[in-house]
Amino acid sequence: MSTPDHDAGDAAPPAWRRRLHRAAVAALAVVGLLVAVVAADTTVLLHRSPTVDVKAPGSVDGTAYLLLASDSRGRLTGEDAKRYKDAAQADGERADLVMVLRSPAKGEPELLSIPRDLFVGAGSATPHRFGMALQRGPQAMVDSLCDDLGIGVDHVAVLDFTGLVDLVDAAGGVTVRTEGPTFDRHAGLYLKRGGTHRLDGHEALAWVRSRNARVQVGGKWWRPKDFDRTRTTHAADVIGQATRGLRSPARLQAAAWTVGPQTRRDTRLELRGLTQLALDLRYAVGHGRVRTVPVRLTRTTVPVAFPTAQTAAALEPFRTSTCRRHR
């Protein structure tokens, strides 16, 4: 019987195992480098997003975000400044879109869309249309949301006027459908046929902002009575499609670089919160967990939406104990 030259436990590993070991070490080194690069890149991206000081009352259960889209042209430059110049537009900013994303500790994320023209504060010294509060800054929006509607939030994010344009373009566009040719000169919406449309960023912004569209059906032009109310529905759909379109790392990074500087966030909304916000927003829209607050809309020179019993019922699940006036 032959005796081995050395114990099996001391045997040198075969060549294929040595090559595999070296490959694994190299792969780990590459992964480590990528993580370091991504971390550094993420830090840069985060610091490209301006911050605002906001004292939020909190939501108690989980996390709630107040998401606003500003109508201010003050930060527009170049072609966008020309494209969206509006002599009738007052200085300052108002909230073009208002949404509350609630992510409970247990349960599924849900998105609430609140009409910007909702008349609030009737029993206070400062009655106003809800979106007008942004003229006094994001803090005023947080305060009005709590004092007038009973909803407390933990974080705030404000998207500048053309932020949606860059978001949609980074995602490769969005798809909408109309009954017939649809036009809204003031919003810059020109869809020359009915059916399915693939919109770029500028077209998507016009679709979201349109409140006086005219639609041609059966050879006749008419104005849908609920088109103004669908603005928030259109916004939720467009944002949902855009977030779903940002699944590739390249597109996600492109969106972060272009949209980041156009998104103001509260000082406590850091990387982890922004990531969770994106995931929860995608989930809520993707699973149809979007509510639009019903109101009684008046078609006057200055549109005003008045609250009804249905308005209160839609707001109730989002109300928090941190805003005691409504509890």
Describe the secondary structure blueprint for this structure.
Layout: H1 15-48, E1 51-52, E2 63-70, H2 78-83, E3 95-103, E4 110-114, E5 119-120, E6 128-129, H3 138-149, E7 155-159, H4 163-171, E8 174-178, E9 182-184, E10 189-191, E11 195-199, H5 201-209, E12 214-217, E13 220-222, H6 230-244, H7 249-259, E14 263-266, H8 271-286, E15 290-292, E16 296-298, E17 304-306, H9 309-315
Parallel strand pairs: 1-14, 2-7, 4-15
Antiparallel strand pairs: 2-3, 3-4, 5-6, 7-14, 8-11, 9-10, 9-12, 12-13, 16-17
Write a structural description.
It is a single chain. By secondary structure, the chain is α+β, with helices and mostly antiparallel strands. The chain has a domain at 51-161 and 266-326: Nucleotidyltransferase, domain 5 (2-Layer Sandwich), CATH 3.30.420. Helix content is 36%, strand content 21%. The chain has nine helices and 17 strands. The chain has helices at residues 15-48, 78-83, 138-149, 163-171, 201-209, 230-244, 249-259, 271-286, 309-315, and strands spanning 51-52, 63-70, 95-103, 110-114, 119-120, 128-129, 155-159, 174-178, 182-184, 189-191, 195-199, 214-217, 220-222, 263-266, 290-292, 296-298, 304-306. Strands 1-14-7-2-3-4-15 form a seven-stranded mixed β-sheet, with helices on one face. Strands 10-9-12-13 form a four-stranded antiparallel β-sheet. A two-stranded antiparallel ribbon has the order 5-6. A hairpin with a 4-residue loop joins strand 9 and strand 10 (189-191). Helix 4 (163-171) crosses helix 6 and helix 5 runs antiparallel to helix 6 (230-244). The longest helix is centred in the N-terminal third of the chain and has 34 residues, at 15-48. Residues 94-214 form the Cell envelope-related transcriptional attenuator domain. InterPro entries: LytR/CpsA/Psr_CW_biosynth, LytR_CpsA_psr. This is Transcriptional attenuator, LytR family. Belongs to the LytR/CpsA/Psr (LCP) family.
